[in-house]
Amino acid sequence: MNIEAFADSTRIAHLGWTLIHSVWQIALVSAGLLLALRILRNSSARVRYVVSVSALAISLIFPVLTFIQFSTQGESYSLSAYSNLRPAGEFERQYLRTSESAMAEARESAAATDTSTAQGLFSALSKWLNGYLPNLAPIAVLIWVLGVALFSLRLGGGFLQLQKYRTEAAGEVESDWQDSFERLCHCVGVVQTVKILRSALVQTPIAIGIFKPVIIVPASLFLQISPRELETIIAHELVHIRRYDPLVNIAQCVIEALFFYHPAVWWISAQVRREREFAADADVLEIFEDSHVTYARALANLEEIRLRTDQQMPRYATAANGGNFMQRIQRILKIKTEASMANSAWTAGLAFLLTSAFLLAIFSFSSSELVNAQKRSGTRKLAIGFVGIPPLDRTANPPKDSDATARLLIQELKEHKVPAIGFLTGSMVSDGEKLFPVRANIAKLWIDAGFELGLGGFKHIWLYHTPADEYIANIEKNEAVAKQLIGETGSQPRHFSYPYLNTGRTVEDKAKVEAWLASRGYTSVKYTFDNNEWMYSYAYDMARNDNDVNTMKEIREAYLDYMSRMFDHYEAYSQELFGRDIPQTMVLTPSRLITDTADEFFAMAAKRGYTFITIDEAQSDPAYKTKEDFTGEAGISWFERWQMAKGRPLLKEPGVDQTVERIWKEKQVSAKK
């Protein structure tokens, strides 16, 4: 077909007008979806997903119906415009006469009724449309055909890439994981036959295929995250397969290719993907009860891996870390069980009866074994302080996963009922006058979650290397930043943590700082459980940056072993100094290592008989009134200070893992260059 024949084709005219009309039709659909999502903002993700998919389907149906209508009925005013450009055939002349008659009647009606300015403008607009838009139809079709061709090539390339993932560098998983996968398929309710493969090409798990679905998991992921976390990720992909989301996703891609020119289509499609991930997350949390922290941590780890490798999955695959990552993390950590008022009342009544029966059984049960077990449990107490808040490197921009790390740490503390206190380092969030918005918001997460905020220094400096007056001014500057963060309604800071646990060069300097703190109503924290966790956290971050999954796993295991030995160490101090287990205070950094090992660490502490208390409760124990006058360049535990004050030799402290120490020393060497 030559260009002139193409332009003169009736079908082309119909298609061109269909494309032109689709602009306002799809815009109207998107406006309706926006309104519907606003109305349904408190509804389940499944409902919003169905509504979004329906809107995308309607965006396709409207233009199809428009084209059918043009093809069966014609369009009078479009042919009228074409008659100015070329001789009219019999078919066109018939519609031309109809058009001219209709236009004459319209002119007579307009002249007989009103000649207002609004009508004049409308008349001029109608004339412009009738005169020019028909000429645009062939051009619109030509551009559309070229665009669809390009996006179709892109679509085909994506499918080829997925086929490559399925066939190249992919293999069977180990037998124990195959057993776990079959169990997960049963739990999720997948009726199709699904295969699971491990691959060296992908960096995040994906589900591909409709008739023969396959889940492909990065080979490194089996070592990089815990088995429980990986199970939640695999379950997410199985949920997609169970709901035939890959088929919907392909349909989306086809619609995106057909209507590539319309921003509203891309927006609607984005809402579909967003709500699809929210709905899949909700299903995973129903399958794995009380696993929202584990699942959120797994997603955060996946996103970080993606950011480090900078690998983008084709849009035609459903990946576990799809959608708006931060919104998903927030929703997962805030998700609540939905129940009707009737169900809530029924549940409350049942809970009352069960609780009454349980209490009756407890008070009537005379077994000495149970009583003794109660006496043994929870006899040790531990308070934890985090230095510093927010969890950022003071010399770098906020890492992309800092917000997620903060949220996950907060949720872990809530999950394990740890009333921790976080000590603010003001230079991380402010220049001394204005807050840095991104960093400040991360710090505010801690406050908004209800955790206590304490003070460090504005700059994290040693008292040993700083004159006392300058050191006090540094604290005072940090105090002003903390008040900006907290605002008028929040609780003001009550505790101070010495940076590096260093209390100065001389007894006079230490006394001067303590007097200033007391005058402002602050209590300094005396940490009994000092440790080199920060070295492990640094090494862990380095391994994460290099995507060194084996080293990450080694560091996690080495850290937990180290902390177990440190518990032994400081419990021995407690017995030697006081003949009992005094409430202890532990200092930690809010690092990703702490977050990723939280379940194991808190389980370790609970197994050793610890319950978690506040700093105030711990330091109310008489042991903390023990006199000591230690000063010097070091920052050491208060157990060691009290031991030295009594003239006793220090106990041998467990050493840091050699790999961790080597990484730290390499950093020191590179910093001096």
Write the layout of secondary structure elements.
Elements: H1 3-8, H2 10-39, H3 45-73, H4 76-82, H5 90-113, H6 117-167, E1 170-172, H7 175-188, E2 195-199, E3 206-208, E4 214-218, H8 221-224, H9 227-242, H10 245-258, H11 263-287, H12 292-309, E5 318-319, H13 325-334, H14 341-364, H15 368-376, E6 380-389, H16 402-415, E7 421-424, H17 437-448, E8 452-455, H18 468-486, E9 495-496, H19 507-519, E10 523-524, H20 533-545, H21 549-578, E11 584-588, H22 592-596, H23 598-607, E12 610-612, H24 615-619, H25 638-645, H26 658-672
Helix pairs in contact: 2-3, 2-6, 2-11, 3-11, 4-5, 4-6, 6-10, 7-9, 9-11, 9-12, 10-11, 12-13, 12-16, 13-16, 16-17, 18-19, 20-21, 20-26, 21-25
Description:
The radius of gyration is 34 Å and the shape is elongated. It has about 675 residues and is α/β, with parallel strands linked by helices. The protein folds into three domains: about 140 residues, no CATH class; about 160 residues, no CATH class; about 220 residues, Glycoside hydrolase/deacetylase (TIM Barrel), CATH 3.20.20.370. The strands form three sheets. Strands 1-2-4-3-5 form a five-stranded mixed sheet.
